[in-house]
Write a structure and sequence with these properties.
Elements: H1 11-19, H2 24-30, E1 56-62, H3 69-80, E2 83-89, H4 93-105, E3 113-116, H5 118-126, H6 134-139, H7 149-155, E4 157-158, E5 161-162, E6 165-177, H8 178-184, H9 192-202, H10 220-231, H11 242-256, H12 270-278, E7 284-288, H13 290-297, E8 306-309, E9 320-329, H14 336-347, H15 349-352, E10 361-362, H16 371-376, H17 380-389, E11 393-395, H18 402-417, H19 423-443
Parallel strand pairs: 1-2, 1-3, 9-11
Antiparallel strand pairs: 3-9, 4-5, 6-7, 6-8, 6-9, 6-10
């Protein structure tokens, strides 16, 4: 990585600027400092001409914690004879987002392919900074039926174009302490009513709570809003639906009325909830399945006392939120053919499977029943159950202005959680901001 670090910029600030359709010049000011020179106009994904005979590709991979990614690099070089210049992105998500935005806004050609998250596919794709992957899929005969449809359609594409090929799966499942459940004589709940009953039985005052909730106004609350609202027939971008209101009231009452979650919920995020789970403070947690692998790999903690179950059914459905990280190609790179070859290589089952070395589940559905994958990535059997059940996973409703939508929802719902406003005013004020954002995004298609 460059030794010249950009000034710290909030994820909200620069992603909101992207979503508003602001000019690239405004983007540069938002994400300053950037490299000298004029920023390119959005090209609609028109890629640069390929560099003939390119033999080195530059890739950026986010949060490699144990060097497992080097196994992928070595396999690519061994097979193709081409080298990979490997850059580890900043572990801090805000720094990572600013890094990529700054590079793309400045016309960067040095990055050929990068590890892309759910929000970036729509935001960067709509800005013309990513190469559509349909030619890669066709050339290398990639079977897209081996991915969950919602992951490809809803969070890897924009305006009918595929901008990212999912590589690792991230799905929210219920993690629970099996020892606490045995002690309390309860079983995993299957409905919201049962969830409240089980959480109550598991709660021991301030010593232990039945469930962890992440209500901090920094992005994590938006995820909590989405998975609870969705199960009641609502969504973070449709808070005015009756189901959304029902979910928000249920969510708040878990800590404010029933006391099965701590009063600190509006200040809690993934970091505090994760530590609380490790400390035995929580018995259940509806969260991204990658945390399961993290617990399994924590030798100081793991005593085979954690398992998982599929989310209980809400008033409308039993769906849970799914997402992914995947590979995307920089449309400004002059190594388009080599980048395409890299994306296709990483999509192969035997290559994608190498993610189990870091406890993560590969994105291909066919790998979820692989015995070695299930052993090394413990959430895989539960994702297989979701796939077999059908229609139980749903991606977050991502558009180019998704961060603005999250901001509006979080700001107003957080005010409700902290007793500043009632639920109806929170919903009304949030939708007053969200509705014009959605209208603007839909005109971009």
């Amino acid at each position: 990585m460059s030794s010249q670090q950009p000034s710290r910029l909030s994820r909200r600030a620069f992603l909101s600027a992207l979503g508003t359709g602001a000019t690239v010049i405004a983007l540069q000011a938002c994400a300053a400092p950037v490299a000298p020179g004029a920023a390119p106009a959005a090209s609609g994904g028109a890629a640069q001409p390929a560099a003939a005979g390119a033999t080195e590709i530059n890739v950026i991979y986010w949060a490699d914690t144990n060097e497992s990614f080097k196994a992928v690099i070595d396999a690519f070089t061994k097979e193709t004879g081409k080298t990979v210049k490997y850059e580890v992105a900043p572990a801090d998500y805000l720094e990572w987002q600013q890094l990529m935005t700054t590079r793309f806004a400045s016309g960067d050609k040095g990055t050929d392919a990068f590890h892309c998250d759910d929000f970036q596919a729509a935001i960067y794709g709509s800005a013309g900074w990513l190469t559509p992957l349909e030619p890669t899929v066709e050339k290398y005969n990639i079977d897209l039926k081996d991915w969950p449809e919602t992951v490809l359609k809803d969070i890897s594409s924009w305006d009918g174009k595929l901008y990212r090929l999912p590589w690792g799966s991230d799905t929210e499942i219920f993690l629970y302490r099996t020892d606490f459940f045995k002690e309390a004589g309860v079983k995993p709940p299957t409905t919201w009513n049962e969830l409240l009953e089980v959480a109550t039985a598991l709660t021991k005052g301030e010593e232990r709570y039945g469930i962890a909730l992440c209500g901090k106004n920094n992005g994590v609350l938006g995820n909590d809003i989405q998975h609870w609202a969705n199960q009641a027939g609502g969504a973070i971008n449709a808070l005015d639906k009756p189901g959304s209101r029902e979910a928000l009231v249920f969510y708040k009452e878990l800590f404010s009325k029933h006391k099965v979650a701590p009063a600190s919920v509006p200040q809690d995020d993934y970091t505090s909830a994760n530590q609380g789970f490790l400390d035995g403070k929580y018995a259940m947690w509806w969260v991204w399945d990658g945390f399961y692998g993290g617990f399994r790999n924590n030798k100081d903690f793991w005593k085979d006392q954690v398992s998982a179950f599929l989310p209980p059914k809400g008033p409308d459905n039993a769906q849970t939120v799914t997402g992914s990280w995947g590979w995307a190609i920089n449309a400004q790179s002059d190594k388009q053919d080599l980048a395409s070859e890299w994306v296709a290589f990483t999509a192969r089952p035997e290559v994608m499977k190498l993610q189990i070395l870091r406890g993560r589940v590969p994105a291909r559905i066919s790998l979820w029943s692989d015995k070695e994958v299930q052993d090394k990535a413990p959430s895989a059997p539960f994702l297989k159950q979701l796939a077999d059940a059908g229609a139980l996973v749903k991606a977050r409703p991502v558009t180019p202005s998704i961060q603005e939508i999250y901001d509006a929802a979080e700001q107003n719902i957080h005010a409700y959680l902290t007793d500043q406003v009632d639920v109806d005013k929170a919903i009304t004020d949030a939708m007053a901001k969200i509705t014009p954002i959605l209208e603007r995004d839909m005109t971009k298609k």
